[in-house]
């Protein structure tokens, strides 16, 4: 058998193997895609209920997601609308604090239209282990200090760490991280109270999350 025929034989063999592998991979993806999406959706719903209690809504909170695109509020990412009997009872807002010690800190904030915080959770961060990572619930209960507090324009100065004259504890040896989180929650609460609560219809202009 000539070299060219041997080469062609192996090329065809490799082609068949590649085709089979692709077919198998595609089949596995199609079989598991729905299951994976269901698990991810369940995890997202559970996280949303950590910042907005289930008794606050009777709609599909996850399906209400809208992308926020405002040039004067780039820290706002997404918003979820909690409704009961078609009335808005609360918002879950995904935000980004850009001034963490090691970069962006992504938060999920549950808040009523009147400025009361229902809960805050950290979604992503790169803060220093043993110091800045105390913003995680598995490390510390510090993030729970926001729950139940009500932001108002006349108490805005309290929405800072104690080192800056506010009411929130900072971490020993790590003030930058809690300061970034507190400032971001304050900014988000102020936006809800002064803009969104006044013009709730603005949400209809936002793009639906995909």
From TrEMBL:
MF-aspect GO terms: electron transfer activity; FMN binding
Pfam family, one: FMN_bind
UniProt-listed Enzyme Commission number(s): 7.-.-.-
Domain of life: Bacteria
Keyword hit for Transport: yes
Biological process annotations from GO: electron transport chain
Primary role: Part of a membrane-bound complex that couples electron transfer with translocation of ions across the membrane.
Protein name (record): Ion-translocating oxidoreductase complex subunit G
Organism whose genome encodes this protein: Actinobacillus minor NM305
Chain's gene name: rnfG
């Amino acid at each position: 058998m000539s070299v060219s025929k041997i080469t062609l034989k192996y090329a065809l063999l490799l082609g068949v193997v590649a085709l089979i592998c692709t077919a198998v991979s595609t089949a596995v993806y199609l079989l598991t895609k729905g299951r994976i999406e269901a698990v991810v959706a369940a995890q997202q719903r559970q996280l949303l209920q950590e910042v907005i209690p289930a008794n606050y809504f009777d709609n599909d909170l996850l399906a209400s997601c809208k992308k926020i695109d405002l040039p004067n509020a780039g820290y706002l990412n997404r918003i979820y609308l909690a409704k009961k009997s078609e009335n808005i009872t609360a918002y879950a807002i995904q935000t980004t604090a850009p001034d963490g010690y090691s970069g962006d800190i992504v938060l999920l904030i549950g808040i009523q239209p009147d400025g009361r915080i229902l809960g805050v959770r950290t979604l992503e961060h790169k803060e220093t282990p043993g110091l800045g990572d105390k913003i995680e619930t598995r490390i510390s209960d510090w993030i729970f200090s926001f729950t139940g507090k009500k932001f108002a324009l006349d108490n805005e100065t309290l929405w800072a760490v104690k080192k800056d004259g506010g009411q929130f504890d900072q971490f020993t040896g790590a003030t930058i991280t809690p300061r970034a989180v507190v400032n971001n929650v304050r900014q988000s609460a102020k936006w809800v109270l002064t803009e969104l609560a006044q013009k709730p219809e603005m949400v209809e202009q936002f793009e639906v999350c995909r």
